Amino acid sequence: MISIFFLFLKIFAGVAFLALVIALALLFDGVDRIVNARMQRRYGPPLLQPIYDILKLMGKENIVPRRASKIFFVASPWLAVASSLMVFLYIPSGSFPAVLGTEGDMILVVYLLAMSGLLMAVGGFASGNPIASIGAGREITLMMSYEFPLAVVVCTMAWVAYRVGLPGAPFNLETFANQSIWQAVGKTGAFGLLCLFVSLVLVVPGETGKGPMDIPEAKTEILDGLIIEYSGTNLAMFKLTFALRSFAISVFMTSLFLPISFASMFGISGIIVAVLDFVFFWVKVFAVQMVFVTLMRTAFGRLKIWQASKFYVVRATGLSLAGMILLSIDVLLR
Amino acid sequence: MSTTYKVPIGPVHVGLKEPVTAWLTLDGERIMDAKLRLGAIHRGIEFMARERNPIQVIYLSERICGICSFSHVLAFIRAIEDLSAIKVPPRGQYIRSLVLELERIHSHILWSGVACYSIGFDSAFHLGMEMRERVMDLLELLTGNRVNYGVATFGGVRWDITPEFAKATRDMIKFYRREFTPFRDIVMEDPIAQARMRGVGVLTKEEAVRYSAVGPVARASGLRVDLRKSSPYEAYSDMPVEPVVPQDYFGAAHGDVLDRFAVRVLEVYQSLDLLEKILDGLPDGPFVAETNLNKVLASLKKAEGVGWGIIEAPRGDDTHIVSLKGGEDNVLWWKVRAPTYASAVSWPLMFRGNELADAPLIINSLDPCVSCMERTLTTNAHGDSNIITKQELIKRCREKTDTLRARGGETR
């Protein structure tokens, strides 16, 4: 009886939380567009423009190209948005635990992020358009390049959490959200953590497909690449996926590396503090997204795919491996 | 074993400002072969001119292009002045040079912005576009128009320079010297912009000579060619103009897109210097030889012969050849050879060994003015434009010469 009650509670909490996540992701996307425009000395769209876009696209006709593989073409946007939404069920927000925190961990989050990217590529390949195929090929290449540094970051963090004995399962994100890993390691380790943090920052543009890494959707080269044939509801789903992915990676980064909260700072607890921390968590996410997504995409042009791939395979991987070695030295020699 | 596939860039493409199609044969991202298909916006302007008198054609020639409109007007006017021996007073010549330099500044800044847009550097694109507004405002202050100025006429110009305008120009020069340098540094020192433009779309010096590249494209390949130096016209005979070549500034000319960017950006500074010299040396006196257009028309009606006008437009040599027949109001024939046409021949060369991501940038690196370029279009009922072979063209030319001779020299 109690398990059924918890099941319903989880379903209710999940639906409410995901609705909040969608609203916040689109809202942050609107802010991103305004800030980007202001930095380029433009006025920019209204704050709610992404929401208007989605609503408008929902009412538009869905065109499936004749040469497209219909099942994959129609299914991939929906599956992509579903998998990028599922990410949020496993990430704790502030003092509140993740909705499905006990059912999945960091590895699942990384997989779900990769899955939504992969599904976008599948949709591109299924379009039957050479330009979309190029975009999808670029997406896959980019993914293969940034997944390794991302995996190194995740595994090193878990290993460190396990060795220094942070309470909780090492791969569970709540372990990092509740205690600051920065205080758990020494000076060498903090430097190593910084390396990992920077390599995760470098992965962000690739993961979000913005900034210097908007190669799969390069507008002036391949005309929005893999989404070129999409329209109507399917396109709305892809737009939502883009917004959710940049939001998800910011949330992931915040809970992994920025565990500052009122509760831990002042050592207090209570329902009001928990609510405050919940709000503060989204403020942190907002700051992370502004700095590492919006600022990056305003400040740089677009790389070519082999340049981006080389950048990830050599520099980002090198940096993450350096962070791993530094942390290993710190943890093993203490 | 690799499979290739074909991807079109254009005719309507986000990265291109005018319709031109490049059919690229790709192996993965690498360009194996490029075929350019032109002719999307041919308008038959030269034919339209045959139903107009020379003064009407001034305003027609302005509509050849929206960016280098004054260059086309001036080339046409100089061709008419060449055949009819109309003299231009010095002040008129100086004002013409002034508008030419203003137009060059506006064209080059526009292009710099578009090049940034092609590599996804939108911030620099918006910065460039905002910066260009200043010179557009100045052109509007002088002529009343932003794009097609309507400022030139036979024997001079239609508007004089006022002291207020001279002051506004000097303010603009100061503004650009202050504000344009950060823009240049933002782009040229940006690692990503360098990675995207260095070594891309290379045209060597020998190829530039062989395929008759003109203007900034030729200069970026290291050729010291500039009509303002080699065959000075208007006010340029009073002031030395040195061609801007990258080897003078960076030690070597690579002939790539970054060099073309550098040449155009440096020419903005050169134009600012020239503007100052023009304003300092502005002679007094009339700015137009004859204000009564009826008299001009009457004298042009008597004129007969072929006239040439060649000037250095922002994109290179702009050549107009006009023929008038004595006793007739209208232009007999008129031939325009826009700079893009000369440079476009080297497009397929520039594509070699580059990638799909570079294609729009390479097309844009010529600063193509497609509407200037498209002077002829051949077509049949099926829309296939490749219907005339070289042999057939030669055959037709000979037939036409034979019929002409048979008719005893009657051309029309």
Would you write up a description of this structure?
The complex is a heterodimer of chains A (334) and B (412). Chain A has helices spanning 2-39, 49-58, 70-86, 106-126, 130-164, 173-178, 181-184, 187-208, 219-222, 232-257, 262-266, 271-299, 305-332. Chain A is mainly α. Chain A has one domain. In chain A, helix 3 packs antiparallel against helix 4, helix 8 (187-208) packs antiparallel against helix 10 (232-257) and helix 10 crosses helix 12 (271-299). Chain A is globular and about 60 Å long. Chain B has 412 residues and is mainly α. Chain B has one domain (45-373): Cytochrome-c3 Hydrogenase, chain B (Orthogonal Bundle). Chain B is built from 18 helices and eight strands. Chain B has a three-stranded antiparallel sheet with strand order 1-2-3. In chain B, strands 6-7-8 form a three-stranded antiparallel sheet. A two-stranded antiparallel sheet of chain B has the order 4-5. Chain B is globular and about 70 Å long. Classes of the chains: A mainly alpha (334), B mainly alpha (412).
Describe the structure in brief:
The complex is a heterodimer of chains A (334) and B (412). Chain A is an all-alpha fold and 334 residues long. Chain A has 13 helices and no strands.
Number of strands of chain B: 8
Approximately how much beta-strand content do the residues of chain A carry? under 5%
Mean pLDDT across residues of chain B: 82
What is the gyration radius of chain B calculated from CA atoms?
Answer: 22 Å
Could you list the spans of chain B in which at least 5 consecutive residues all have pLDDT below 50?
Answer: none
As a whole number of angstroms, the C-alpha radius of gyration of chain A is 20 Å
- The residue fraction in helices of chain A comes out at over 70%
- Could you say which structural class the secondary elements and strand pairing of chain B correspond to? mainly alpha
Shape, per Cα inertia axes of chain A:
globular
What best-fitting shape of chain B do the alpha-carbon axes yield? globular
